Task: structure prediction
Amino acid sequence: EDKVVQSPLSLVVHEGDTVTLNCSYEVTNFRSLLWYKQEKKAPTFLFMLTSSGIEKKSGRLSSILDKKELFSILNITATQTGDSAVYLCAVGPNFGNEKLTFGTGTRLTIIP
Amino acid sequence: GAGVSQSPRYKVAKRGQDVALRCDPISGHVSLFWYQQALGQGPEFLTYFQNEAQLDKSGLPSDRFFAERPEGSVSTLKIQRTQQEDSAVYLCASSFTGRRGGEQYFGPGTRLTVT
Result:
């Protein structure tokens, strides 16, 4: 059975700090790993990492994929209160299509 | 449309009632997915359509759950004889099948409470 484990489960930091969120996985047919940000409603897409794209960056957010060690990290630098959310990691078999297997998420709280 | 929409946003049902949840995917998106998200958990896969074909329904928890997408656009998830354990947020996602991208875009969800 496919498995995705995220750590820590929750994290509280002060505004301006840098955080690192972890995601490890065990899947039988890996093709892609995706990061989503979930505030009170719809998960919003952040990054997709595949064999051909193991590092992504957008503004203060960046992510890397280690296919050998089967994990990914999501880094957020200079955190802001708007970064407070649950961050979900998911793995999928076909570049984001077909079913995604999610972790339980990391709840990040930024204190002003 | 601008994004995936779902209705209703909230639904309260008495145990034993049938419910129907609607999803309008992003226009032109071929693939449509349903997920169930319990409180404090990540979304769990229920079923997947490519156009009108239901290609994977392995995540449906029982035969009380039924999904359809008859014209390859709007989809309905139906739950018959609801039970308290069905209480959750039901998320719909769509994606464009192609060589580029393919990430899934989620709707706001329907929060179902069974009393």
Summary: Chain A touches chain B at residues 4, 32, 34, 36, 41-45, 48, 88, 90, 94-105 (CB under 8 Å).
